[in-house]
Design a protein that fits this description.
With 168 residues, this protein is an alpha+beta fold. It contains four helices and eight strands, in the order βαββαβββαββα. It has one domain: 2-Layer Sandwich (Peptide Methionine Sulfoxide Reductase, Chain A), CATH 3.30.1060. A six-stranded mixed sheet has the order 7-6-1-3-2-8, with helices on one face. Strands 4-5 form a two-stranded antiparallel sheet.
């Protein structure tokens, strides 16, 4: 029996992130939603302080939290405060919602690797926030770019090469 795990991240509009992650090896399910904000049961029109984020269900035998974060840091710009592409505001912040000390340590390690790589012109501003509740977004936001293939996204793979160096 597989013990699937979940990861919670935010990096701008949730549509583009979901669309890129859905085809990654080991990712079994994606949901878009709101996290890290001030109100319960947030909606698209009322989500103060919440980031547009995604919940990834993954098979830890096929991918790791570290590999998920590696891809995350290559598919959005983690050096812009509260902005991705044309989207601006705290809803579009870069954030990792860690569930335990191990995930927090891995997130810090990845931020250090990304900063040390020099691939981005600025320093990573991704916030590390404790996971509380993931609130699923409205149905029309789920799988949005599958339903609307010409819809807006500012997400794309910026670097083919992993930030993770092979260990010898």
């Amino acid at each position: 029996m597989i013990n699937y795990k979940k990861a919670y991240i935010a990096g701008g509009c949730f549509w583009g992130m979901e669309d890129l992650f859905r085809t990654r090896p080991g990712i079994k399910d994606t949901e878009v939603g709101y996290q890290g904000g001030e109100n319960d049961n947030p909606t698209y029109k009322n989500h103060p302080g919440h980031a547009e984020g995604i919940e990834l269900t993954y098979n830890p035998n096929e991918t790791s939290f570290k590999e998920i974060l590696d891809y995350f840091f290559r598919m959005h710009n983690p050096t812009t405060v509260d902005q991705q592409g044309n989207d601006r505001g705290s809803s579009y912040r870069s954030a990792i919602f860690y569930q335990n000390d191990e995930e927090k340590a891995i997130a810090k390690e990845m931020i250090d690797l990304v900063d040390a790589s020099g691939k981005w012109q600025g320093k990573v501003v991704t916030t590390l926030e404790p996971y509380t509740t993931f609130w699923q977004a409205e149905d029309y936001h789920q799988d949005y770019l599958v339903k609307n293939p010409n819809g807006y996204t500012c997400h794309f793979l910026r670097f083919d090469e992993s930030f993770i160096k092979e260990e010898v």
